[in-house]
Structures are given as structure tokens and as C-alpha cells.
Design brief:
Layout (H helix, E strand, L loop, with lengths): L1 E4 H17 L3 H13 L3 H20 L9 E9 L2 E4 L5 H13 L11 E2 L6 E2 L7 E7 L4 E8 L1 H4 L3 E5 L5 H12 L7 E8 L2 H11 L6 H7 L4 H15 L13 E9 L6 E8 L5 E6 L27 E4 L5 H4 L7 E10 L2 H12 L12 E3 L24 H11 L3 E4 L5 H10 L2 E4 L5 H5 L2 E8 L8 E15 L6 H13 L8
Parallel strand pairs: 1-3, 2-6, 9-10, 13-14, 14-15, 15-16, 16-17
Antiparallel strand pairs: 2-7, 4-5, 7-12, 8-11, 9-11, 14-19, 17-19, 18-19
The structure holds iron/sulfur cluster.
Amino acid sequence: MTTIRQQDLIQSIADAFQFISYYHPVDFIQAMAKAYEAEASPAAKNAIAQILINSRMSAEGHRPMCQDTGIAVVFLKIGMNVRWDDATMSVQEMVDEGVRRAYTDKTNPLRASVLADPDGARKSTRDNTPAVVHMEVVPGDRVEVKLAAKGGGSESKSRFAVLNPSDDVVEWILGQVPTMGGDWCPPGMLGVGIGGTPEKAMVLAKESLMAHLDMGELKARGPKNRAEELRIELFEKVNALGMGAQGLGGLATVLDVKVLDYPTHAVMKPVAIVPNCAATRHLEFELDGSGPARFEPPSLDNWPKVAIDLSAGAKRVDLETLTKVETATWKAGDRLLLSGRIFTGRDAAHKRLTDLMAAGKALPVDLANRFIYYVGPVDPIAGEVVGPAGPTTSRRMDKFMEPMLSSTGMLGSIGKSERGAEAVQAIKHHKGVHLIAVGGAAYLVAKAIHGARVVAFDDLGMEAIREFDVKDMPVTVAVDASGNAVHESGPREWRAKIGRIPVKMA
Ligand code: SF4
């Protein structure tokens, strides 16, 4: 019988979530470095370079690699011969206390993204609790913990279906991945769960992502079962789709594919996909009664020294004198370095702004000739003007694009990944533009922000409208004033170049 102290589990969970907020798993970074070396698409290579530079900066600075520091997911295997010493909390409560301490740590505060009452008030719980906990009781006298901080952009691109027994899993997945676009911040991993019941398939997909990347080893030794055959086939075919880093078109969409399966009912084949983004953050440890887990910081030698000049080939833009006449000359794919003032705003702020417009009321900010950056930054610590502040998913703001462009005189938006048809149409109609920063490069983006102040909707916390002073903020024109979109042209071009998936050219 092993005795585990409540305090040891709490401390280990807290330390682990802090650790993964700034250290990518070494195997993930090494796979990303290989993808960088092999990438032939200039746009995708630039994006991967930013992800790698950002990752090293986070590891050095002990600050989050992404502004979305995730929802806490914890898998526990609790030995049947474990005894809890003087426990006053349930295991869920212990895990939540660890999450609370990690996310409110004053030396490296993480963003509280979790909201209670999801279809009602959607109010922040303020400390990112509760965690999503999966528990199993197993033989033994240890507590095994696997945990991850899952970003909302990738989680929201999860897919699920109950296929017929004769349906082809690969065909279904290859149909789904293009619909996920760049919103899940590839390159990353796909977790696939097959079988069981609907909820079991989803949990299998999530659990599969807790494993290390080993696609190279698997290919070298060959598959031993159907799940491993599928991993290799999916790895090859998903990459042949040419989605590439950030959905810009390129060779590396996935660095690995994981598959877990489970017996299922004769009449069905449940299949789930859960992606892991560029901010892949997971860790595992074991408690054996000897105290809290200890996590060894990885050597920075594991991070490649990426020699890239992000300003090479980029146009410098003065936001203080910018007009629609100039933005109309930009072409999809142009890289820019922005200097001057921009406003921030995302879902809740857009809702309030458009509600005010609909009511004929004045807006709290003058958006004429300005950009709105879709971001919810991490709180700053001493010495920072803002915490990590990377872009959030642009598509969530699609329905606001028409009223925002038609009524405010704003020049356009900055976010991550593609826009839907509704937003592209509004951009084309009003001669606006949409720019993208690299999702998952939040600490790097924050270094380009030299001033930050809340200017409206303070009560919205991380969703308040801020004004940022930026200097050489790296962005790419994703949708130009004519409605040309890099997320359409890029993957089409690279799918054709890779040449393994039939491409219908427009
Ligand atoms: S890398 Fe992208 S999907 Fe992942 S947490 Fe960051 S913004 Fe979200």
C-alpha cells in the first residue's frame, strides 16, 4: 500500500501546468525543426520559423508560448493499492486546486480561458478551473498522471462521426481536414479515436495525443497492427493535402498522427479526430508516495537556432498615415511589418460594438482608418507592457465583418487563419483587407507591442478593447481588397505540387 499526500498531487499538477506553458515537449520541437528544414513553401517556412523562435523565447523567458494557455485536461490512473493520506478533497478537487495555483501563479500568470454557464452568462471562473478529468482505477500502488493544456482553436476543430461499418475511415478524415483549415494552428498532430461508443471514441482521440512523437521510428520498423497502418497512411495522405503550416500551403501539416482503437458494436464505426496545435503542451508523471513530481528543465540545445531575417522581403507600414488607397495595393501573400497604433477586440467586444451600432449609439472608439486585432492577451508581469498576445481564430468574427467595415471606416482586421465566404465577400465589397499573424507565436508577437492600454469594455477582462502601439509587427495579407485569399490559393498550389491527391484547379 502506497500513501499519496493530497498536497503532493496538488503541487505536481500546479508545477506541471506551469512547466508546459513555456516548455514544448522536446520531441515536438525536434519534429518541428525537421519540418522547418524540409519545408519548401516560403510562407509555411516563415510561419514555422516564427513558431520555433517563439518556442525558444518562451523556454528562455518562462512565459507562455501562446496567449491561449488552454483548458486543463488530466488523465489519471490510480492504483488500487493507493491510500490517500488525510485527504479532505476529492481527486477532482485536488486537480482543480493544482490548476488554480498554476494559472494564478504571480511569476507567470496564465490566461483564465474557462467560462462557467457555457450556454448562458459565459462568465469566467477566473482561475481556469475546473479541469476536465478522466480517471481509471488500475492494479498497482502508483498514481499515473498525463495532462495537457489544450488550446481552444484546436479543440474547436475536433470532428466526430458514426460511420457505417463499411465506410472508409481514411476517406472520412481526408474529407474533414480541409474543413479544419488553419484554425487549429498546424503543423501539429492529429489524434484519432476509433470504436467504442461516441464518447469513448472522443476520449480515445484525446488520450492518443498524450504520447510522444515517433512517426520516424514507426515508419522505420513498420506497422504491427491496423492502428499503426492507419497512422502511416494518414500521415502521408494528410500531408499530401498540402494544407501546410497555418493553412498557408506547404509540406508539413502534421508532424505525427496517433490512433487508438477499441471494440465497438457491430452496426457502427465511431470515429473522432482531435488536433494538437503548434502549442502542443503535455506532460506525464507518476507519484509513488515519495513526494511531488520533479520536472527537469530541458536543455536549450534542443531548440534549433533558426537563422531567418523576418524583415527580409517584408514591406514596412506606418499605421499612422495608412489609408484605404494604400491597403488596396496590397496583394494576398504580401508580408508586412506594422508600426503604429491598432485596436484589439474579439468575440464579446464585437458583439457589444455591433449592438451599439444597431441601436444607433456612438462607439467608445473611433475605428476610422484603423485595424482591429483579434486577440485576448495574457496578463503582463513586471517589465512587460502586455503578456503573450498572439492572434485568435478570425472566422469567429466573420458575421461582424460586414457591419464593422460598412459602418466604422476601419481598414481591416488582423487574426489567425482563414475567413469564411461571408467575411471575404464583405472585405471585397468594402475594399477592406484581412491580415494574419502566426498562431502559436504569441510571445514573439508580444515583443512587437511597445504600449498597451484598455480603452473600452474594461469589464470584459482579456476581451476588453485595448490600444496597442506596435513596432514592426510581422503579418501577412491573407485576404486582399479584391477578395483573393492565401488560404485558398496556398493549399491548392501545394496539393498540386505534392501531386498525390487529385486537385481541381479553378
Ligand atoms: S497555437 Fe493556435 S490553436 Fe494552439 S492554443 Fe495557440 S492560438 Fe490556440
